Amino acid sequence: MPLARRIDVHLHIVPPFYQDIVREAGLGPARRAGYPPYSPELALEVMDANEIEAGLTSVAQPGVQFAEAPQAKTLARRLNEHASELMARWPNRFGAFATVPMRDIKDAVAEVEYSLDVLKHHGVSLFASYSEKFLGDLAFDPVMDALNQRRAVVFIHPTLHPSSRALTLPWPAFIMEYLFDTTRAAVNLLMGGTIDRYPDIQFILPHAGGTLPYFAWRLASTPMIDPTMPQWSREQFAAKLRHFWYDVAISSGPTTMGALKTVADPRKIVFGSDWPFVQAPLVADAIKLHTSPGLHSDAERAAIDRRNALTLFPQFG
To answer: What is the pLDDT of residue 1?
Structure first.
């Protein structure tokens, strides 16, 4: 078979300077084991071993929101310039989703402008929630306006809402809470009208959209249960769900993919690895399942691996 030449929209950077700053703040990633081994060279090794031609980098939990606004602004700029250095050194291998400091909306808009207009990043990465607010909250509209003007790609990554942090369940948050955080943000973007007010933003939902595909029928039933909700038809709900893009990171199994295919536009499903938090053995295992007979047709797999992403990122063509 020809090489897949995958485009990975879910590839994280965790440079040593960032790890040090996060640890000094007493924080870390959602997994208990701390940060996994990371370097650009390790990323390229994993990419080469798994036929990943290019990766769009982003910063995962905890982002820069743990810092006060001035420090968050400075750290976001440092991370974005680091991502640009990777792009300059390996222009055919790395793209970048910019980190946006959302503590101060003016800072956020300024970093969107700098990252997309000056650094020429391929889009931005936003967390599903910030403090008590989920994406779709009207407080974020100035950022959405700046993104819509640029027809930007927005990669959404889950984080931990305060309500999730308060749970007494003993399991690592990424197992369940990440999926729910993504789901809540997607519903808020949809029901609150953000995707209608800013139709030129291309939102990528990670991990097959969290639980969104599973409960899509229930979501579309809400107008019949509660007359105060938007009175959209099932067809209108379906169209809104097909507005989103979905990556397949940690979602390769037939149950998840079966649900995703019932709601997603097949032209808007893209490949994601979630490396390095998903480490090399699991990346390989997920791809083995992704390429197994019967899960996708050859044409579907080729579209997920590469062709769909080229609609968003023709630079890698």
So the answer is: 62
Name, in order, each residue with C-beta under 8 angstroms of 236's C-beta and a sequence gap of 6 or more.
none
3-state secondary structure of 307: helix
CATH 3.40.50.1010 fits 6-312, yes or no: no
Look at residues 288, 248, 250 and name the one whose alpha carbon lies nearest to residue 264. 248
Residue recorded with tokens 């990556």: 247
Q: State the CB neighbour count (10 A cutoff) for residue 211.
A: 18
Tokens of 183: 């789901």
Residue ranges of the chain whose pLDDT lies below 70: 1, 29-33
Angle at 215 between CA 178 and CA 63, to 5 degrees: 20
Domains of the chain, by residue range, sit at 6-312
Angle between helix 69-89 and helix 16-24 axes, rounded to 10 deg: 160
State how far the Cα of 136 lies from the Cα of 264, in Å rounded to an integer: 20
**How many whole angstroms separate alpha carbon 37 and alpha carbon 23?**
15
Helices (H), the chain: 16-24, 40-49, 69-89, 105-113, 141-149, 162-165, 173-191, 194-197, 216-220, 222-225, 234-241, 254-263, 280-290, 298-302, 308-312
- Cα–Cα nearest to 34, from 53, 10, 60: 60
Per residue in 254-265, pLDDT (tens digit) is 999 999 999 999
How distant, in Å, are the alpha carbons of 68, 119, 202, 250, 276 from that of 31?
24, 31, 29, 14, 12
Nearest to 11 by CA among 79, 86, 108, 94: 94
Predicted TM-score of the model (pTM): 0.95
- What is the distance of C-alpha 102 from the center of its chain? 16
251 closest CA partner among 228, 220, 274, 279: 274
Share of the chain above pLDDT 90, in %: 85
Give the angle 105-106-112 at the CA atoms, nearest 5°: 85
